Amino acid sequence: MADQNEIINNIRRKRRFNARISRIIADVLSVNEIDFNADTVIKGFHKADEIDILEIIIGIETEFDIQIPDNLFSEFKTVGDFYDYVRNATGGKNRSLN
Predict the structure, then answer these.
(1) Per-residue DSSP letters for 9-63?
(2) Domain residue limits, the chain
């Protein structure tokens, strides 16, 4: 039973984690969070350009207290790329996730 509870808690934590990133993206692009998913390509989505992507990165850096190296900016193609990078950079943990 403990394993099942741990799995459920991990899923909930991942959803909250992704929701924080989605809120940043939605705010920058002035869209609703239900308008995109992990597979959505950022550039061009609702006319998003490099400036919008930079604003998303700055928002993520601030929210999660991380630094994303400039040379990685072009690596973020989809919403899921942001989810994966931040989860890896933070070890999937952040003090306000729990």
Answers:
(1) HHHHHHHHHHHHHHHHHHHHHT--GGG--TT-B-TTGGG--HHHHHHHHHHHHHH
(2) 2-90
